[in-house]
Design goal:
With 507 residues, this protein is α/β, with parallel strands linked by helices. The chain has 3 domains: 1-150 and 281-288 and 297-306, no CATH class; 152-277, no CATH class; 315-490, Fe-S hydro-lyase, tartrate dehydratase beta-type, catalytic domain (fumarase). It is 34% helix and 23% strand. It has 15 helices and 17 strands. It has helices at 6-22, 26-38, 42-61, 90-102, 151-154, 168-175, 197-207, 214-220, 225-238, 324-329, 347-358, 398-407, 421-430, 442-446, 486-506, and strands at 2-5, 71-79, 82-85, 131-137, 142-149, 158-162, 187-195, 253-263, 268-275, 281-286, 315-318, 335-344, 371-373, 412-415, 433-436, 449-456, 465-479. The strands form 4 sheets. Strands 12-13-14-15-17 form a 5-stranded mixed β-barrel. Strands 4-2-5-10 form a 4-stranded mixed beta sheet. A 4-stranded mixed beta sheet has the order 6-9-7-8. Helix 12 (398-407) runs parallel beside helix 13 (421-430). The longest helix has 21 residues, at 486-506. The radius of gyration is 23 Å and the shape is globular.
Length: 507
């Protein structure tokens, strides 16, 4: 019989959440590096270069890969010959580890968990509670998997009760394009089939903990029908042409994982959960000999990809002298380097602005002629002016877009992923523009921010309104003043290119 002390479990969870905030799994880095080498879309290749550069920077600087440091998922298999030396519950022990990990002064992680999903939605300030799944198994060890799941990818989770005769492949290919790019591809798809509704969801999430091995699978060939299905889905999803960050390209997914379970004869429950460019998980065992030892990967494991501002291929924009006429001159897909002053704001700030405007109250800051960045940054440490500050999913602000453009004089917006029809029409009508920063490059983006100060709604924490002074912040024109969206034109172009190649190869 093994005895696990509460110190060992708490310390292991604390170390794990810090570890996964800093280091990508090496299987992800290796597969992403291969995708970078073969990518032909300039926009997608640039986005992947930013993600790879950001990943190395985080490993070197010991800072979070993404500003959204996620909600913690803990999967625990407990041997039935294990004894825990504690008077606290497993949930309490894991939460204590998460609390310590997220409030570590050397690398504080963003607290994103709210204790009431319906009414107060109050931030717990330490990212607890975590989501704990426990299974009793034979043995005298505790097998633990810890993952941090960002909201952008988690929000794209899909579920369906298919008829037994329905095709899984057809459902996936119909569903993925509707997920948009808010899950920050290239990543992976986790699929659970069978069991019951909640079992399918759990399997989909668990499958994301597996190593990415599609390259190896393609090299040796499939050895089962399930592997054949994985390859088919991998190839057909990539043939959709969605590409990195939804800009169009050859690689949308690096792998597809599938777990199955026995199910009712009348049922075919199917769940699909994407993992984003900030794929974060780690696996360890406890045997009673002490806390887990997590060894950082060597920097030599990262490819020699070092993104830098491209002054020849990018237009330099002075935000402090920006005019509506200049905004109207931006072209879809054009790369910009922004310098000057920008404001920030997310869901909570937009809702408060809406309420204040409805009451005729003055806003804490003047948005006229300004650009807003949808971001909730990590707190700074040491000599930083701000912590990792990558973009959040812009579609959550779609319902506020017409208000912001029409009532505040806002010129343009920065975020990640596509905009919906409502927002695109507002952008066209007001002659505005939407700029996309790369999701998965939060630390890289933060290095373009030279100063940061809160100018409104300080009580909202990371959702407060900041004013950033930036220099050479990289963005892409995703929706221009005429309402042309590269998230529509890019994938359509690359889907056609890939289809033409496949047709030629088949001929």
């Amino acid at each position: 019989m093994s005895t696990i002390t509460e110190h060992d479990l708490i310390q292991s969870i604390e170390d794990a959440v810090q570890f996964i905030s800093i280091y990508h799994p090496l299987d992800y880095i290796r597969h992403l590096a291969r995708a970078y080498e073969v990518e032909e879309s300039p926009a997608a290749r640039d986005a992947i270069a930013q993600i790879l550069t950001n990943s190395r920077m985080c490993a070197e600087g010991h800072r979070p890969i993404c500003q959204d440091t996620g909600i913690v998922n803990v999967f625990m298999k407990i041997g039935m010959d294990v004894r825990f030396d504690t008077r606290r519950s497993l949930q309490e022990l894991c939460d204590e580890g998460v609390r310590r990990g997220y409030t570590n002064p050397d690398n504080p992680l963003r607290a994103s968990v709210l204790d009431d999903p319906l009414f107060t939605r109050r931030n717990t300030r330490d990212n607890t509670p975590c989501v704990l799944q426990v299974e009793l198994v034979p043995g005298d060890r505790v097998d633990v998997q810890v993952a941090a799941k960002g909201g952008g990818s988690e929000n794209k989770t899909k579920f369906a009760m298919l008829n037994p005769s329905d095709s899984l492949v057809d459902w996936v290919l119909e569903t993925v394009p509707h997920m948009g790019a808010g899950w920050c591809p290239p990543g992976m798809l986790g699929i659970g089939v069978g069991g019951t509704a909640e079992k399918a969801m759990l399997m989909a999430k668990q499958s994301l903990m597996q190593d990415i091995d599609m390259y190896e699978l393609l090299q040796r060939g499939p050895q089962s029908k399930l592997e054949e299905l994985r390859i088919e889905l991998y190839q057909k999803v990539n043939a959709l042409g969605i590409g990195a960050q939804g800009l169009g390209g050859l690689t949308t997914v690096l792998d597809v994982k599938i777990l199955t379970c026995a199910t009712h004869a009348a049922s075919k429950p199917v769940a699909m959960i994407p993992n984003c460019a900030a794929t974060r998980h780690v696996h360890f065992e406890l045997d009673g000999s002490g806390p887990a030892a997590l060894r950082p990967p060597a920097l030599s494991e990262w490819p020699e990809v070092h993104w830098k501002p491209d002054y020849k291929a990018s237009r330099q924009v002075d935000l402090d002298t920006l005019t509506r006429e200049e905004v109207a001159s931006w072209k879809p897909g054009e790369r910009l380097l922004l310098s000057g002053s920008i404001l920030t704001g997310r869901d909570a700030a937009h809702k408060r602005i809406q309420d204040m405007l409805a009451r005729g109250e003055p806003l804490p800051v003047d948005f006229a002629g300004r650009v807003i960045y949808y971001v909730g940054p990590v707190d700074p440490v040491r000599d930083e002016v701000v912590g990792p500050a990558g973009p959040t999913t812009s579609t959550r602000m779609d319902k506020f877009t017409d208000m912001m453009l029409g009532q505040t004089g806002l010129l343009a917006m920065i975020g990640k992923a596509e905009r919906g029809p409502e927002a695109i029409e507002a952008i066209r009508r007001h002659g505005s523009a939407y700029l996309m920063a790369v999701g998965g490059s939060a630390y890289l983006v933060s290095k373009a921010i030279r100063s940061a100060r809160v100018v409104g709604f300080e009580d909202l924490g990371m959702e407060a309104i900041y004013e950033f002074q930036v220099r050479d912040m990289p963005v892409t024109v995703a929706v221009d003043a005429q309402g042309v969206s590269v998230h529509r034109t890019g994938p359509r172009e690359w889907q056609q290119r890939i289809a033409a190649r496949l047709a030629a190869a088949g001929a």
